[in-house]
Structures are given as structure tokens and as C-alpha cells.
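name: query_chain
kind: protein
chains: 1
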Amino acid sequence: MMRRLKLVLEYDGTAYHGWQVQPGLDTIQGRLEAVLSRLAGPPVHVMGAGRTDAGVHAAGQVASCAMDVRLENLSLRRALNALLPKDIVVTAVEPAPAAFDARRSARSKTYRYTLLRRGYPSALHARFSLYVPHDLDLHAMSEAAGCLLGTHDFSAFRAGTCAAATPVRTISRASWQVEGDLWRFEIDGNAFLQHMVRIIVGTLLEVGRGRRRPADISGILASRDRRRAGKTAPPHGLCLVAVKY
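structure:
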């Protein structure tokens, strides 16, 4: 019998060309669809809540699919994890309503960008954090992050290749937390544009180094000009933490 399913995944995106299927490239969606299709027989298509870029990680990516499989949800999770590579793990398989779509049904998403702030790099954290050996002004970066709250046109913080129908997004939280040498920027929003979080982080890093003032963020937003914002931070520090429905 055909069943609608909600899958929750975590993955280390280092070896993959992002979430979305691309011809000739190894992707998270491609790997997942291949294993699901192997278990179900007919090809299975999955929809992901967020199209994470190449090198970006996830702790709470959500995918939806419809498939005809006799395995119960727990057994299906075990089968998926036995067949998927070790850097992709399905943490939950749940029944979903017929209309559930992982992307369109999402109400908000949380992303986290992690910095390693100390005088020497790390062998253990290198794949999941951006090493920043120089001093940063945490207070200034926190003040700048506050300028992002609310509903804005984020054209200045989107990639030139972004195909979103509208650049308007609503941010409900944008804050820094420090735990030892790890500085984590977390941001909640109803949706995000391509490279949006990474461009925001790149701009906040310039604030932290004193190259911009916290209040400059409001001017960058108002300009709607990508050239006014900072560089795009590398992908490996970014993680899709959670999706809410």
C-alpha cells in the first residue's frame, strides 16, 4: 500500500555536492532516492525541506516521499541506515498526511554556523567549523545580528544564482552563543535564500573585525545590493539544525 512518509536525516555534507540531485554528481538526495527505490522497487522521489549547498551539513533535515513498502517504520529506518553510506543517517521515519510536503509545509527553519576561535586549528572540529585565529568583537557581532530581525528584503544577502520568487524573508531569531572555543551563530526564519546564511555570517565577521559598524547591516539590507554585503562564508561551518511544521 502506498504510504506518505516523513524522514528526518543528519549528514556530514563534506563529500557531497549538496542536497539536490544533479546529473553526474554525488548528492544527499540522490543517495537517499537510490536506496529508497531499491527497497520499494519503483523509483521513489523525495522532497527535502532545504536544499543545502555542497559541503553543508544537517542535524535535522526533513524529507517527504510516497512509497509502497511492506516494512514498518522502525524496520525501514534500520534498512535505510544499513544501505546508506555512514555519513548519511536517517534518524526517524514517521507517517505523514497525504498533503505533507517537506519543503512547502515547513513553517520555519533553524541554521547554525560554527566558528572555532582560538590560536590553533583543530583536527576534530575542522570539518564542521570555520577556524578564525584573529580577535573578534562578540558584542558588535551580536548587535549587528539584531538588525536582521523582522521581515526584510534580503536581496543583498542572496546569491546571484538564487531562483527564489521573492527575496522577502522573516527572521525571528539571530544570536551568538559561546561555548569555550566554539562560537555558534543561530538563526531562525520562515525560509532562506540561496547562500543567505553564509553571506550574513561573512558580513558579521567583518563587523567582528571592526571593518564595519553594527548599524551598517540596516543600510546593507536597505540597499538590496549584494555588492554591499560581505564575502560568502565557507560552507563547512553551516548546519541545518531543525525544521518546524
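note: The mean pLDDT is 97.
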